[in-house]
Amino acid sequence: MAKHIVTLIPGDGIGPETSAAMQKVVAAAGADIEWELAEAGAHMIESCGSPLPESTIDSVHRNKVAIKGPVTTPVGTGFRSVNVALRKALKLNVNLRPVISIPGTGSRYEDIDLVVVRENSEDLYAGVEFEEGSEGAKELIEFCKEQGAGVIREDSGISIKPISITASDAIVRYAFDYAKRLGRRKVTAAHKANIMKFSDGLFLREARKVAEDYPEIEFNDNIIDAFCMNLVMDPSRFDVIVFPNLYGDIASDLCAGLAGGLGIAPGANIGPDYAVFEAVHGSAPDIAGKDLCNPTAQILSAAMMLDHLGETDCAARIRSAIRRIYREGEVVTGDIRRATNSDKPAASCTEFAAELCRILEEDN
Questions:
Q1: Given a cut of 80, is residue 265 above it in pLDDT?
Q2: Chain mean position to CA 346
Q3: Is 214 a catalytic residue?
């Protein structure tokens, strides 16, 4: 087995704990990974002036592959988001979120098996904004008035929603290629084209156009609000779902909630040249350093990373071990104990990782 050099960004909050657990499990699975440590998070602002140092970007440029723990994002003010900054710097246009039920997690459904494919680079997350009262906001309000495009209140903050042919074609094509490669049966495009005809309408038009190149895969589309209702009523109606950025962000967490929550939800951000795998939950600073967190999401993200690196046997062994530990239900963290209404003692993050390693070594 060839050695792989991977950038490890532990993050902040509980990130260092989930990252340490992930490293132990990956080693126990037999993967030969050399970790190159890089930092990001609120703790870097004082020393670097930014939560995302250039040295971290440089590390991913060298190694092509990274995995990161959760990073705190300020709400309302300050640095927008380390995650968004990474995606922009590395041109990671695809956010990939597989959602699969794991028996024993206390999830609302037992048979979910779907994949969220979210466009990462534009939409309302493009960062094109005008602060309330700024000259830019005033000029845009006046321009819209002159063009007959609509009346915007003078005390408005404004965010622009760009959706392009280029990005829409790329994300939908990725969704179809993914479905074809993994033998999935259907791709659904979610949108609000009935209202936003020039942005979401463009996305839907491109999705339909791309679908014609994949006649062997079923295609349909759902208006986003109807999609959310249909998803909650019957998740089995969906397989691979492709979204513009904002809807994909919201819907991916909804999908994760139906399958047991963000604590067990893996994710990846993928571009033409680089890939960053990540636990998608928050940094949970209230329990940081207490050894209470659930590292499953980051461990499953590592399994996605191993698939990406061609270490599919190691990835499969990790997923099998996770299914076993949840099925047996003896060594699981507090969030799972609460979700399953169990009065058994909860395992610490360290204990959970150690049990996973024991299972992996036993099955080796």
A1: yes
A2: 27
A3: no
- Summarised one tens digit per residue, pLDDT across range 83-113 is 888 888 999 999 999 999 999 999 889 889 9
Active-site residue, selected from the candidate residues 12, 68, 123, 125: 125
- Confidence (pTM): 0.92
* Residue type at position 67: I
Whether residue 313 lies in the annotated active site:
no
The strand ranges marked E within 201-292 are 218-223, 240-243, 266-270, 275-279
Q: Taking every pair of C-alpha atoms in the chain, what is the biggest distance, in angstroms? A: 72
- The span from the CA of 336 to the CA of 343, in Å, is 11
Beta bridge partners of 31: none
Distance between CA atoms of residues 345 and 347, nearest Å: 7
Q: What are phi and psi of 303, to 5 degrees?
A: -65, -40
- Decide if pLDDT at 78 tops 80: no
Catalytic option among 12, 174, 178, 192: 192
200 is catalytic: no
pLDDT digits (tens, 9 = 90+) for 329-350: 999 999 999 999 888 999 999 9
123 has catalytic annotation: no
Q: Is the pLDDT of residue 249 over 80?
A: yes
Q: Which of 32, 58, 213, 225 is catalytic?
A: 225
A 10 A CB-CB count for 145 gives: 12
